Amino acid sequence: MSQGSSSVLLVEDNPHDEALTLRALRKINLANQVDVVRDGQQALDYLFRQGEFAGREGTGLPTVMLLDIGLPRVSGLNVLARLRADPLTQLLPIVILTSSDEEQDRMQSYQSGANSFVRKPLDFGEFAETVARLGVYWLATNEPPSAAKT
Length: 150
Hints:
Number of helices: 5
Number of strands: 5
Number of domains: 1
Distance between the termini: 16 Å
CATH topology: Rossmann fold
Largest sheet: 5 strands, parallel
Mean pLDDT: 87
Low-confidence stretches: none
Strand order of the largest sheet: 2-1-3-4-5
Order of helices and strands: EHEHEHEHEH
Shape: globular
């Protein structure tokens, strides 16, 4: 059921949440590659192959990006707005995966073009199950537009 070139870009500044997310994604074994960046500027540099990622190997975009809102340097919402404004990344599936339960964050995420908004459960088991469900949906079930396929 998995695609041959499935990859995930995880944008997460919390090392604990990063470890839990990576463990859950590895457990379902759908993504060939999970790349991690730890702030909003790194996410933009990664996707646009700039700065420290200017020589990044591989082609195309990740299958899905899991994006936290509360990031250092450039906020997740600003990253989202920048990605939606650029033809290269405007169709990239972006899931906001955040601890925020603020209605304003949810509304702004969708208004800025998020494909999904998911609040991180506090319980480890629930967190792992949530990430696994996201992985199955975005990597095995969802059919991206041709322009977004890698």
